[in-house]
Amino acid sequence: MSEKGLLEEKQPNVVEAFKKLMEESLKEGMLPSKFKELIAVSVGLAINCPDCVKGHTERAIKAGAKKDEIAEALAVTLSCLGCPTFPRSKTIEETLKEHNL
Predict the structure, then answer these.
(1) What is the signed CA dihedral for 43, 46, 49, 53, rounded to 10 degrees?
(2) What percent of the chain has pLDDT over 90?
(3) pLDDT of 100
(4) Would you list the DSSP string of 6-69?
(5) Burial status of residue 24 (CB atoms within 10 A of its CB: 0-12, 13-18, 19 or more)
(6) 32: how many CB neighbours lie within 10 A of its CB?
(7) Does the structure show a pLDDT above 90 at 3?
């Protein structure tokens, strides 16, 4: 069993509300979940959050994203974020390999 972090321990209602926000905002809607997850991957790259990038890449794959679609999302991210996209996208490449893509 993993140890609870400070937020989970002291602010469980806030953590639960955040989880619900993520669930609600990433579910199927006018935009398919796959697109929403690809957006989240790009945001994760922009804020330099490797755990976010990995998690949202895995969720994008689970939602049906193909390697070429992920690469195209990376190209859009590169056009907005620039050079930091290259080193930050290593997490995506590792995740694709884990999923044999």
Answers:
(1) 50
(2) 96
(3) 95
(4) HHHHH-HHHHHHHHHHHHHHHSSSSS-HHHHHHHHHHHHHHTT-HHHHHHHHHHHHHTT--HHH
(5) exposed
(6) 13
(7) no
20-46: per-residue pLDDT in tens? 999 999 999 999 999 999 999 999 999
The token duo for 19 is 């989880």
Tokens encoding 6? 């400070």
Sequence letter at residue 91: T
Residue positions counted in the chain: 101
Q: Which two tokens stand for residue 82?
A: 């620039």
